[in-house]
From TrEMBL:
This is Phosphohistidine phosphatase SixA. GO terms for molecular function: protein histidine phosphatase activity. Keywords: Hydrolase. CDD domains: HP_PGM_like (cd07067). Pfam families: His_Phos_1 (PF00300). Signal peptide: none annotated. Coiled coil: none annotated. One of its GO terms (cellular component) is cytoplasm. The keyword Hydrolase applies. SUPFAM superfamilies: Phosphoglycerate mutase-like. The lineage of its organism: Bacteria, Pseudomonadati, Pseudomonadota, Gammaproteobacteria, Aeromonadales.
């Protein structure tokens, strides 16, 4: 099973509540760029788990323009200060049921970093830039393996001639 953990795109600094902070134009464009890049590696997500916060749902909307999701769910276990071990247990349970699937998680810092650390204990919690995506491979023989972490700042210089650029990043 491949688990892709994504931090939401850049969000507005203020709203009536943290849960209602929307993506900025740059945040939408970061998510768009990462989705275009990731679409060359993943044809479809078998399951997508998204925090119920507005900015994560908007990030998924941008990603879904490039990569389909067969089952999409909002999960309270993916809010910014949720318990990473509980969230990791949820992902591992999906992994036990669906060993060949591609799973996308769209959440927040600090949870995304702690989630990587919880799934891959030999890896310290990485810092995710906005719209950053980590890939973890789950298999019976090795357990969880941290494969990579990429962000729009790395993707854009190397891939921009191959992708339709998004509004504010072009």
């Amino acid at each position: 099973m491949n688990i892709f953990i994504m931090r939401h795109g850049q969000a507005a600094p203020e709203a009536s509540s943290d849960a209602l902070r929307p993506l900025t134009e740059q945040g939408r464009d970061e998510a768009c760029l990462m989705a275009q890049w990731l679409a060359h590696q993943v044809a479809v997500f078998d399951r997508v788990l998204v925090s119920p916060y507005l900015r994560t749902r908007q990030t998924w909307q941008q990603v879904s323009r490039h990569i389909a999701g067969e089952q999409v769910e909002c999960s309270e276990e993916l809010t910014p200060n949720a318990d990473a071990d509980l969230a990791a247990s949820l992902l591992l349970a999906y992994g036990e049921l669906n060993r060949q699937d591609n799973l996308l998680v769209v959440s927040h810092m600090p949870l995304v970093g702690f989630l990587v650390e919880s799934l891959c204990p030999a890896t310290m919690a990485p810092i995710f830039v906005t719209s950053g995506i980590a890939k973890i491979t789950l298999n019976a023989a090795q357990g969880a393996v941290f494969d990579w972490l990429e962000g729009p700042h790395n993707i854009r210089p190397h891939y921009e001639q191959h992708f339709q650029l998004c509004r504010s990043l072009g």
